[in-house]
Amino acid sequence: MRFQGKLSNWNDEKGFGFVEPNGGGNRAFVHIKSFAKSSRRPVEGDILIYEQTEEQPGKFKALNVTLAADNKRKKNDSRAQQYKSRRSSKRTLEKSLSLSFCLIIFYLVMTQTLPKELFWFLIGANVLTFIFYWIDKRAAQHRQRRVPEANLHMMSLLGAWPSALLAQLKLRHKSSKAEFLRVYRVTIAVNIAAVFWLFSEQGNQFLSIFGIK
Questions:
Q1: Residue ranges of the domains in the chain?
Q2: CA angle, corner 209, sides to 203 and 213, nearest 5?
């Protein structure tokens, strides 16, 4: 069982003291050798996390002692690592989707399922989107008028989300704002859904109406 308590009567020169458990209980003797690896030496008043054993009747000793601050730091580091891992996984998925999207569009154009005009439109939109991101980053750095986020999302919605992803990664812009990324990922989902829809019966009928297929 783990306890939490406050270090008292600490003699740093001799390396021992006592720990008073929070909420009352048996005071336990604590020695510097009982501390697990920590970021620093303990000082009077530190909050400790420990186990205890009864060496003699009414006399207790603290074992496997750690600083509560170190425990908290480890938890924070672990959460930060988990967040980075999830974020990296999402970016890897987005890269894969981006490559697949571009290849599928190229295939559809080459097989004349989609008009070449659409291909060139997407090329232009992607180039323009990357430029918009670059302009917006410079504006942010120089406190100038920014490109509205709605415009960036609209470009992504119109098929330019691959270059938006490239700009986020290469320019390190709009790559950590959670709210922006949530909307951006919605534009990815819409584009992918649109591609799948084109292969459906309804999609084929739609293309036939405009003489595309």
A1: 3-71, 112-209
A2: 65
CATH level 3 topology of 3-71: OB fold (Dihydrolipoamide Acetyltransferase, E2P) (2.40.50)
C-alpha span between 13 and 32 (Å, rounded): 10
Q: Partners of 4 in the beta sheet? A: 49
pTM (two decimals): 0.61
Based on its alpha-carbon atoms, the radius of gyration of the chain, rounded to whole angstroms, reads 30
* Angle 183-184-188 from CA coordinates, rounded to 5°: 115
Interatomic CA distance for residues 44 and 139, integer angstroms: 51
d(CA 211, CA 205): 10
Helix-strand-coil split of the chain, %, nearest 5: 60, 20, 25
pLDDT per residue as tens, the chain (213 positions):
889 899 999 999 899 999 999 888 899 999 999 888 777 888 999 999 999 999 888 899 999 898 888 877 777 767 767 777 777 888 898 999 999 999 998 988 888 878 888 889 999 999 999 999 999 999 999 999 999 999 999 999 999 999 999 999 999 999 888 899 999 999 999 999 988 888 788 877 776 765 655
Q: H helices within the chain, ranges in order?
A: 68-110, 116-141, 149-155, 161-170, 178-198, 201-209
On the CB side of 117, CA atoms within 13 Å amount to 2
Q: Which amino acid is at 8?
A: S
Which of 112, 4, 9, 23 has its CA nearest to residue 65? Answer: 4
Pair 27, 20: CB distance under 8 Å: yes
